[in-house]
Each structure stands twice: as structure tokens, then as C-alpha cells.
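Lab meeting tomorrow. Please check the following:
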Amino acid sequence: MSSFLDRAAASARANVLAWKGRYPEPVIMERARPKGFLPAGSGDCGVIAEIKRRSPSRGDLMGQVDPASFPLPYKRGGADAVSVVVEEQYFGGSPELFQQISEMTDLPLLWKDFVVDPFQIRLAAELGASAVLLIAGMLTDTEMTTYIAIAREEGLRPLVEVHDTAELDRAVDAGADLIGVNNRNLVTLEVDIAVSEKLAGRLPAQVQGVSESGIRTPEDVALMAAFGYRAVLIGESLVTAGNTEELLRKMVTAGRGARETLRHDD
């Protein structure tokens, strides 16, 4: 039986074929300059707020809620960036959704996808992305190095996602300087927030870390900040919240000064 990551890769390849018909290559090259994404120099743990219609583990997340209703509360709530899931089959996203969100906010945007082809990176740049997700577990060492280079050539910051120490070491060797630690195992879909704790101490000094998945409360954000993460990526908790802006604001507040507080407590 194939794993979810295998199925997601197959879906991504099908998406690429369809998207190439909707977005011809000459159009992609006429892109605007993307905005910066999580610049260095901040001691806070920021929040990347995600727009995700559904997930393989929980199904439909938004119901009748319009994804376009989220950029404004994300901005008001203090998000540092917005992640838009564009994968179609399992997450209900699309390049068109990404483009719509891009036109509605000036926050930096992360193109969240299962990248298996350089076309996806170039399309992300054309549609206004500032960063693109690359998943170490579905790329060879050569592909990871190549895709990181292509992303940077396109003006995007590559966020390389890992789940264990082996993937982390491969990402660092490939030249990643922004690494997402996914608490969700993409083979089993199980979530364990302890993964971020385990890998935090292994992140090199020149690498910024982002903790992904399973972040549900302001206390979780404060914990990730104390571990040294530059940001957390939060999706399901925000899109299913009764008051998204209020929850986000509490999470953003929790990420500010948490490292300084930890040092004082020591």
C-alpha cells in the first residue's frame, strides 16, 4: 500500500500537467518581484497563518466559509505571512486560489504544495509568492539542491520541510537556510509536537526554523519560541476557530519575547 506522500506526489504530477495548460510558460516569465519572507534579525517567533480548505486527516475544514475571508483577519491579527495550500485533490487548493489571495493582501505568501517539478516554483513566483515549500522526504539530494537554487533564482525563499534528523541533515547539506520541522509524519499522518523539540537543538546557527503542524494554542507557540523557532505555521486551528482574529492575536502575542522570558527565568 502506498503512503500518503506517494499519493500526494502522484497528485502533484497530475496537477503540473493540468496547470501547464492553464498557465503557459511565456506568461510565467512575466512576474512581479516578490516580497521578502521572514527576514533575519528578529528574536520573536512569528506566525505563518495558513489558508487550507481541507486535509486528508480531517476532511473539510471550512464548510461554506469563503477562503477569501481569511486574509483580512490574518492581517489584523498580526500574522507575519500567509501560507496558501494549492494542492487540489487532497487539500482543495489551486493556483487560482493562490492568485486570489495574493491580490487581497500585502503580507508575504508561502506557496504550499508538493513540489515535483520546477514549473511549480516558477508558477509560484509568477502568482506573487515570496516563498515556496520543498519537502525533503519526496526529493532526492540532487533535486533538493536544484530546487533550492531555482527558487532563489526566481526570487523566492525556499522553506525546506523535514520530519527527522536524517532529512534535516540532508536539507542543511543542500544549502537550506529556512527549515520547517513538520510535526506531522507525512507517511502515517500522525502528529507529534515533540518532533519540533527533538530537532530544535540540531538546527545550525545559520538556519532559521519553522515549527509546522499540531500548533493549537498560544502556549504551543510560546513553547516553540522557547525552543528557538523563528516562526510557527498554523492552519487548522485558525481556519476552524470561532474567532480567527482573536486566536491569532493571542498566538502572535505568545511568540513575542518568549525567548527573552526564558533567559530571565534561567
